[in-house]
Structure formats: C-alpha cells, structure tokens
Design a protein that fits this description.
Length: 217
Amino acid sequence: MRSTSRAAGPALLACLFLTGCSSVPLAVPDVSSSGAAAPAVSASGAAIAVGAGPQKHYTVQEQPAAGSCHYRYEKGEPLEDPTCTPGAISPAVTQTNLKSTICRKGGYTSGVRPPAYVTGKEKKLNAASYGYTGSMSDAEYDHLISLQLGGDPNDYRNLWVEPADPGHKEGSGVNNDKDPVETKLHTAVCAGKVTLAQAQQAIVTDWTTALTALGLH
C-alpha cells in the first residue's frame, strides 16, 4: 500500500510550497493473485495520493493559498478544483480488509473522523483558498473521497468547502446531492459490485457521474 510512484505534478508542487505537507503521493499496488486492490487514479490519470491515515491526535493542516482554488460546475452542481483537491486515500483501508474497516458492522467513520475543533479551523482556511464567501453553515467541509470509501481523514488534498446545491434555501443547513452518491458507492463496494479503487476513481473524476460511470445509476 505504500509503494512509491512518480509524483503527480500539481500534488508535488503543493508539497513544495505548503509547509507541513505529510508526504509525496504514493501509488496503491496493482491487482495481484492475492486479491490486492487495483490502483485508483485521479481525474488527471495520476495515482491518487496516499495520506497519513487515521491519527490518535489530529492537527490543523495548512491549506492552499487564499484565492488559488476555483470551483467548477456541472449542471449547476459544484465540483472541486482538481489541482487543489485531487483526493487522497487512507492506507488503513484496502480491498482486502473491507470487512474489518469500512464495511464492518457498527460503523467505521466515527472512529477516524477528525474533531470539529480541527476541521472548523481548516474549513475557514479552505474557504479562503476557494474564495468562498457564502454561509459557512450551508457549506460542507467535505471529504472528496468520503471516509466510507476509504478517503484520508485529514489530508488537505482530500478536503474542500463544498457549496450548497442549486436551489438550496439559504440558512437551512448542509444538504447536498453528493452524500447519497457516496452512500450508494459504499453499498456497492461492500456488496462486491465494484472494487474500492473503482469507486474512489469515479468519485474523484466527477461525483455527478460516478454512479452512471460504474453502471450503478
């Protein structure tokens, strides 16, 4: 899970100018006869970075420079900037240990999620990165690759301030269409309909088309 790969250009540059960057992107091993996971790749075609994974004590991560990230939109739905937020996966979750991690009974995400006093500070910093000026209570500090899909809990490359969906009533709190997509992908992974890497790749490519791309919609 920790074998090195050629670093993707944007992620490597981010490591060069952001102090506290945890690591250069690592590749996930190829499929083998032992059933190991195939490598997930980002929208740019590079291997998705591997973060530090779950921590006993999380610290506030530095974010991209203010104004350096730019939202994209697909049919009005907000998408992340792939340069600032290419995604990062957790080394603690692999295709071979799904039953003891994200697919285990009793849940997984609550035990690895960073505390609000850490993510609250990061959210404000990331809002500045994206130039987000809307209501913070209506925006989600979102894991691009969700925790239930093996996303890294606190790698800055996997977190972004996600604006509310089109037609969202201001002041009504977080409610976006990406969440049910993540849940359907998680169900498909745990049922063996798609691999973990396929789900991760689909979500970082374009969450609005992830289900269709995998034949799940």
